[in-house]
Amino acid sequence: KYLMTGLSLLRPESWELKYYLTIRLYDAASEALFVTGDFSRLAVLIEEPLMNARSFEDKLNIMNNLVRALAASSKFEEGITKCFSILGQLGEVIPNEITPDIYAKEVSHVKQLLKGKSQQDLLSLPMMS
How many CB atoms lie within 10 A of CB 45? Predict the structure, then answer.
């Protein structure tokens, strides 16, 4: 309730004058709506920050909340499509159909990357963030 009140107090020029406060408030509100299961309000709320965020990084947590809400609503196809779109924006293109040729190429690539690495080497890698 406090976050929604805060959002209601923002003026249209807040995106220009108080960008950091505005994006953080939308970010926190999207998280709160996800946690409380208010997915319909979340879907409406995220439109503005997705249009006004200055960088892709500023959109990531909001998009994460959207994808989690889609999964929690059993909208798996829509969630997967959204994930593919996000990954594409990050430079990771995932083909719609995996042919045997694509599969073989990817397996070969992974084997090449793992060549000479022990299980201990892999376990010693830093945790992904």
Answer: 22
* DSSP codes, 45-98: HTHHHHHH-SSHHHHHHHHHHHHHHHHHTT-HHHHHHHHHHHHHHTT----SS-
Could you tell me the pTM of the whole model?
Answer: 0.72
Q: And the tokens for 36?
A: 């409380």
Q: What is the pLDDT of residues 93-104, one digit of tens each?
A: 888 888 999 999
Q: ∠ at Cα 67 (110, 53), nearest 5°?
A: 100
The residue behind tokens 């319909």 is 40
CA distance 79 to 102: 24
User: Phi, psi at residue 11, to the nearest 5°?
Assistant: -95, 160
Q: Which amino acid is at 119?
A: Q
